[in-house]
Design goal:
alpha/beta; five-stranded parallel beta sheet; FAD/NAD(P)-binding domain; Enolase-like, domain 1
Length: about 425
């Protein structure tokens, strides 16, 4: 009987899974369900190069046009999975089809959290998750436009940078004490606040949106403290929630994502999960994590495909993400590797100067330590150091300590500190 592998989700994780299955010699049938009317694409450019107009639409796609047909992969664009029956091994779809599977991959991604405020349905309120979202938003980022970004996470700050590059008037509203504090902690989040303020962004921290006002179209953002911000458009970036509906209805174990083991297998032995939707056991971290970044989508799709083929898989890649914000001084290009949530580390060690200056971009590496062990590292405008940073993180999670003084000394090569 022919093997039938179905991939639900047309993002990077699903695309990499399909590619890997063929590269590993799988000769059975592969069907990819892609809810959008496009072949799978990568999302980071949507808030970076594509949004700013420095990259064209073709550049965002994972594979060139024709790849799926050439590799005998059935791509059903504009078709959603509506139900999964694990007992019957079938997937019902929005076009009325019923697909049988021997192995199934859930790569359904996540959906932006809606703004819980009156007026959030007014015209001029944008989210950024899809190509269509970027196509709608980009033409409105123009000189003089009054842009209010609600949420100071990665998406919000990248949109703010793109809007400022277009000479828009930008205000960022963040509920925490400062943008990115929940991710980076106070010490490093301060760098990003300084960066955006140096580029002319107004940052309002410790504030929430009460309501959006306007006659059919948003005109004013009213905060809970009574502050009113004039707005021609509002971009909401307050996080994302995993798309769990299929998994829940199928009876799979879920939490903050579809629960999976270190091989990305769910509570059903023939169903796997990858990308944003997967909350997988991480052997290095010793906990279950759900990672909403490009590198995880890319690599977990590969790992899940190999596991679907019965290969031994232990998905333990060091969590990694990156951002690029602004193109002239001061600007930041950075890479982050590891896992160090606020409250889980006891010191941050800087190698280099994190100060933001109007005429120069900061160049430094930050390390998050607990008990002398490196839990995470972030290189800012310093390159070709990720291999050593990730090695230090792996060593740190294995309980190996490093001298903080040597870690902060740029004259000591990082390679000499790797145990």
């Amino acid at each position: 009987m022919e093997d039938l592998f179905v991939i639900v989700g047309g993002g990077l994780a699903g695309a990499m899974a399909a590619q890997t299955l063929r590269e590993e010699g799988f000769a059975g049938r592969i069907t990819v369900l892609c809810a959008e009317d496009h072949r799978p694409y990568e999302r980071p450019p949507l808030s970076k190069a594509y949004l700013s107009g420095s990259a064209d639409r073709e550049s965002v796609f994972v594979h060139p046009d024709g790849w799926y047909a050439e590799h005998d992969v059935t791509l059903l664009a504009g078709v959603r999975a509506t139900a999964v029956d694990p007992q019957a091994h079938t997937v019902a779809t929005s076009d009325g089809s019923l697909l049988r599977y021997t192995k199934l991959l859930l790569a359904t991604g996540s959906t932006p959290r809606p703004l819980p405020a009156a007026g959030a349905d007014l015209d001029g309120v944008h989210y950024l998750r899809t190509v269509a979202d970027a196509d709608s938003l980009a033409p409105r980022l123009v000189e003089g436009a009054r842009v209010v970004v609600v949420g100071g996470g990665w998406i919000g700050l990248e949109v703010a940078a793109a809007a400022r590059a277009a000479k828009a008037d930008v205000t960022v509203v963040e509920t925490a004490a400062m943008p990115l504090q929940r991710v980076l902690g106070r010490e490093v989040a301060r760098v990003f606040v300084d960066l955006h303020e140096a580029n002319g962004v107004r940052v309002i921290s410790g504030a929430s949106v009460r309501e959006l006002l306007g006659s059919g179209r948003v005109e004013t953002v009213k905060l809970t403290d009574g502050t009113q911000l004039a707005a021609d458009l509002v971009v909401v970036g307050i996080g994302a929630q995993p798309n769990l509906e299929l998994a829940v209805d199928a009876g799979l174990d879920v939490g903050d994502g579809v629960l999976a083991d270190a091989s990305l297998r769910t509570s059903d032995p023939d169903i796997f999960a990858a990308g944003d939707v997967a909350a997988a056991e991480h052997p290095m971290l010793g906990r279950r994590v759900r990672v909403e970044h490009w590198a995880n989508a890319r690599h977990s799709g590969v790992a899940a495909a190999k596991a679907m083929l019965g290969q031994p898989v232990r998905y333990d890649r060091v969590p990694y993400f990156y951002t690029d914000q602004y193109t002239s001084h001061p600007s930041i290009g950075m890479e982050y590797a590891g896992w160090a949530l606020p409250g889980e580390y006891d010191e941050v060690v800087f190698r280099g100067d994190p100060a933001v200056r109007p005429d120069a971009s900061p160049e430094f590496i930050a390390f998050w330590l607990k008990g002398g062990c490196v839990l995470a590292g972030m290189n800012v405008n310093v390159w070709d150091v990720q291999e050593n940073i990730q090695a230090l993180v792996r060593a740190g999670y294995a309980g190996k300590q490093v001298d903080p003084k040597k870690l902060s000394d740029p004259d000591v090569p990082l390679s000499e500190l790797v145990p």
